[in-house]
Amino acid sequence: MATERAASGEQRAAPDRRSVNRSMFWRVLRRSVFANRARLFVILLALGAGAAVTAALLNLQIDAKRRITTEFRTFGPNVLITSLTESGTISESLLSQLQPENADSGYAAIPYLYSLAKVQSAGQIQDAVIAGTHLDLLENREPSWKLQPAHSLEYGADECVVGARLAVQLQAQSGAALHFSSNGRTESCTLGTILSSGGAEDDQAFVPLAVAQRLANAAGRVNIVKLFVSGDAARINDAIQMLQARLPDVEVRPVRQFTEGEARLYDKISGILTATVAVVLVLTALCVMAAMTNIAAERKNDVGLMKAIGGSARRVLRIFLAEAALLGLAAGLLGAAAGMTLSIDLGKAVFGVAAQPRLIVYPVSVVLTVIVAILAAYPLRRLVQIRPASVFRGEE
After folding, report:
1. Among 365, 344, 318, 361, which residue's Cα sits nearest to residue 24?
2. Whole-structure pTM over 0.85, yes or no?
């Protein structure tokens, strides 16, 4: 019976010792952290500045992909669908099969039917390329094109658009009557707006698709479909593969100068920002490491006393690592929040539009700051090797 009581007494004493050890651990840690407030402030400032810059650059890096994708979409379509047949045309009904399975990954399509015809206006006759399309989509889907004068988005069935150079050759202005003839077939329209693109489109006339089909005697046919696929290069390639599998009778290909240029530009920006983040973290670690070296020199007596009264090397090391981790956590939480705010202003300066804060950046920046703080505490490892007797004799 006495043996059982002694055993039960030891079991009750064990939790008490653990509680005392835990309380002592936090007490020593608290006194260690606040022993030198000036140096504590320097370490927090270095870690906080590193966390702020890291969070700002990482947020810009993620937001850059969205901004670059948006900017490249302003240059026009990035995917083309063309015919594989000798006739060079595809059925207009193809448009109904271009809707993506996922509405969130949507893309817009503009069909075109090109043909040659004679254009007449006010006694002037010119041979020109006639592009039949949905005129209502031009201003929204070809944002690099300039249409003057301003026009409502809805074009009438008898209206057309003429390129700037062709309009000069025809001496035609808005409201002029235009007549098209090809292979004995004639059509007429009213010039609604004049298009300026700086490219081949300035020599073309854009008419409603139905008008071009009648001129070319190609009812229900188009030459090419231009797609505006949203997303980065990988997402565009996925959309191309999906469309090619769904439409084996046509060729689906990207506009390489857009998709590849977008990928190269983002890779360069991403590489620069990643390298900058790495340099910032290294410099932060060096600053903290210098402060930790001074701390290691100051705490030799404390560590010697801890080891003299029975503290193990592992427990002593745990105290210093916990101290570094707490400093990194506190500085990371404050610095990352400041960095997310900073990235908004940086986005305005770089892209002209405020960067959107990305929630994933905040925990990543905090974790990186904690890791840097722990790695920067490397000089404190020397304290584990201190021998109490040598410290008290003044040998170390």
Report:
1. 318
2. no
